[in-house]
Design a protein that fits this description.
8 strands; Rossmann fold; alpha/beta; about 10% strand; binds iron/sulfur cluster; about 40% helix; 4-stranded parallel beta sheet; single chain
Length: about 450
C-alpha cells in the first residue's frame, strides 16, 4: 500500500540534490561548489564560529551537539580536523550515500573548518567495510589536489590543507570519538575517559575538532545561504534539514533529506510509501538501533532532536527502522542486544558482562526456558548498565531493550506462558535464531 506523497519544497533540499550527483569535481563546481571555501579564507575564526552558532547546526553523528559551540572549544596548539565516517549504528547509511554522491561537499567543509581553526590536516576515519566509499573519497581528494584546493593555500590564507583517508578495521566502537582517536593514533580502538576531550587532546594528542560526515558537508551550504536563512527552517531547538536513513518493513527504504519540521509520518508514509506489503506497523525506531522504540501513535512527532526526546526516544543518527506486526519483539531484542554484546570493547565491567547476560537471559526467554522473575531480572540488568559505563555503548544496549520491555512486556511473558512464540514462524527474525526456535513447537500457519 502506498502512503501519501510527502511534498517537500525544493528549497528544503539543502544538502543533497538526489536527482543530480556531484561526484566529479566539475559537477560540484557547476553547482556552485568550492566557492565557499574560497570566500571563507578571509574570515576570522570568531566570525565562522558565530555563523555556525547562528545557524543552529547540530552534529549529525548521534548526540546532536551544537557544532558552532564545539568549534569554539578547540584548544591552542597544532590543531587537527577528524571526520567520523565510521557509520556503524545499525540502520544508518546516510554518510555512505553522501560520500558516494557528493564527496566534494565533505572536502569543501573540511577545508573551510581547517582554515577557520588553522589546522593543516584532516583525517577522514572511514569504516573498513566502506571500500568503494574510500576509493570515491580518494579520487575526489586527488582531483582537489590537482585543482589546487588541497595541498597549497587558497588565495587569502597562508594555511595549506591536506586530507588523508584512514580506513578502520570494522569495529562499531570506533565510531565513538575517543575510540576512533585511539585507533587513529595507532592504539587499540577502545574508548578513553573524558576529560581530556578531543578539543584538548585528540589526534596525535593535539587539539582536535571531530565531526560527523554530514555535519561537515553541511557547512559550505550554510555559508552559501547564510546562517539566518538556514536557521529559518526550524523547530524550537533544531534547524535546517537532515538526512534520514529509512529501513525495515517499509515499502521504499532509502535516504531522504527532510526539513527538521517534518514528522516521522512524513518520512515513513510520505517518502517511504508506508509499511511494506500493506501490513500494520507495530513500532518504529527513530534514531538508530540504540534509540528506544516509539509506538505508532508517535508518528506525528517531528524528527528534530528535542521533539524526538520529548516523545521518549532520541533522534540519534537519523536512522528510522520500521517494525511491522509480524515481528517477535523477543527475537528483535535478542538481535539488537547480541549486536551490542558482540561490539562491546570489553574495557568496563557493566557493559562487558551486562550485555552478555542480557543476551543469555533473552535467549532463555526466546526458547521458553525462562521464569517470570527473569523478565524482572532483565529490567534490573538495564538498571545496572545504564549510566554506569565508560562510554555510551552499554546504554545503547540497555535503553532499547528496556523500551521493548516497557511496551511489549506481555509478549515477553507470553514466551513463558505459551508453548510457542506468539508471533509464529513468520517473524522476520525467526530465521536468525533457528537453534532456539527448534526447541519450540511449530505454530501452524
Ligand atoms: C558507541 C558509539 C558509536 C558511535 N558511532 C558513530 C558513528 O559511526 N559516526 C558518527 O559520526 N558518530 C558516532 N558516534 C558519535 C561520536 O562519538 C561523536 O559524538 C560524533 O562523531 C561527533 O560528531 P558531530 O558533533 O558532528 O555529531 C558514536 C558514539 C558512540 C557512543
Ligand atoms: S561501555 Fe562497553 S564499549 Fe564502552 S568502554 Fe565500556 S566495555 Fe567498552
Amino acid at each position: 500500500m502506498q502512503g501519501p506523497t510527502f511534498a517537500a519544497p525544493r528549497a528544503d533540499a539543502i544538502l543533497l540534490d538526489f536527482e543530480g550527483e556531484r561526484r566529479a569535481l566539475a559537477q560540484y563546481e557547476a553547482a556552485g561548489g568550492w566557492a565557499q571555501a574560497k570566500a571563507a579564507t578571509g574570515r576570522a575564526f570568531d566570525e565562522i564560529v558565530q555563523e555556525l552558532k547562528d545557524s543552529g547546526l547540530r552534529g549529525r553523528g548521534g548526540a546532536g551537539f551544537p557544532t558552532g559551540l564545539k568549534v569554539s572549544f578547540i584548544g591552542k596548539g597544532d590543531r587537527f580536523l577528524v571526520i567520523n565516517a565510521d557509520e556503524s549504528e545499525p540502520g544508518t547509511f546516510k554518510d555512505r550515500e553522501l560520500i558516494l554522491r557528493n564527496p566534494h561537499a565533505l572536502l569543501e567543509g573540511c577545508v573551510i573548518l581547517c582554515n577557520a581553526i588553522g589546522a593543516k590536516a584532516t583525517y577522514i576515519f572511514i569504516r573498513g567495510e566502506y571500500a568503494t566509499e574510500a576509493e570515491v573519497l580518494n579520487a575526489a581528494i586527488e582531483e582537489s589536489y590537482a585543482k589546487g584546493y588541497l595541498g597549497k593555500p587558497l588565495s587569502g590564507t597562508s594555511n595549506a590543507v591536506d586530507i588523508y583517508v584512514h580506513r578502520g578495521a570494522g569495529a562499531y566502537i570506533c565510531g565513538e570519538e575517543t575510540a576512533l582517536l585511539s585507533a587513529l593514533n595507532g592504539f587499540r580502538g577502545q574508548p578513553t575517559a573524558k576529560p581530556p576531550f578531543p578539543a584538548v587532546s585528540g589526534a596525535w594528542k593535539s587539539p582536535t575538532l571531530l565531526n560527523n560526515v554530514e555535519t561537515v558537508a553541511t557547512v559550505p551550504y550554510i555559508l552559501a545561504m547564510g546562517a539566518q536563512t538556514y536557521q529559518a527552517l526550524r523547530t524550537e531547538q533544531t534547524t535546517g534539514t537532515r538526512l534520514m536513513s529509512l529501513s525495515g518493513n517499509v515499502q521504499r527504504p532509502g535516504n531522504y533529506e527532510l526539513p527538521v519540521t517534518a514528522t516521522y509520518r512524513d518520512l515513513i508514509d510520505g517518502c517511504g510509501g508506508g509499511v511494506a506489503g500493506g501490513r500494520t506497523m507495530k513500532a518504529f525506531i527513530p534514531g538508530g538501533s540504540s534509540a528506544p522504540i516509539l509506538m505508532p501513535d508517535m508518528l506525528d512527532t517531528q524528527i528534530a532532536v528535542e521533539t524526538t526526546a520529548a516523545a521518549g526516544s532520541m533522534a540519534g543518527s537519523g536512522a528510522v527502522i520500521v517494525i511491522d506486526t509480524r515481528t517477535c519483539m523477543v527475537q528483535f531484542a535478542l538481535r539488537v542486544a547480541d549486536f551490542y554484546r558482540h561490539e562491546s570493547c570489553g574495557k568496563c565491567t557493566p557493559c562487558r558482562e551486562g550485555t552478555r547476560w542480557m543476551v543469555e537471559l533473552l535467549k532463555r526467554v526466546e526458547a521458553g526456558e525462562a521464569t517470570m522473575d527473569e523478565i524482572d531480572l532483565l529490567v534490573e540488568l538495564c538498571d545496572r548498565i545504564e549510566g554506569k559505563c565508560l562510554c555510551p555503548l552499554g546504554d545503547a544496549c540497555a535503553m532499547p531493550v528496556r523500551s521493548y520491555l516497557k511496551h511489549f512486556r506481555a509478549e515477553f511473558e507470553a514466551h513463558i506462558d505459551a508453548p510457542a512464540c506468539p508471533a509464529g514462524p513468520a517473524s522476520p527474525f525467526g530465521a536468525l535464531y533457528p537453534s532456539l526456535r527448534r526447541t519450540l513447537p511449530v505454530v501452524p500457519a
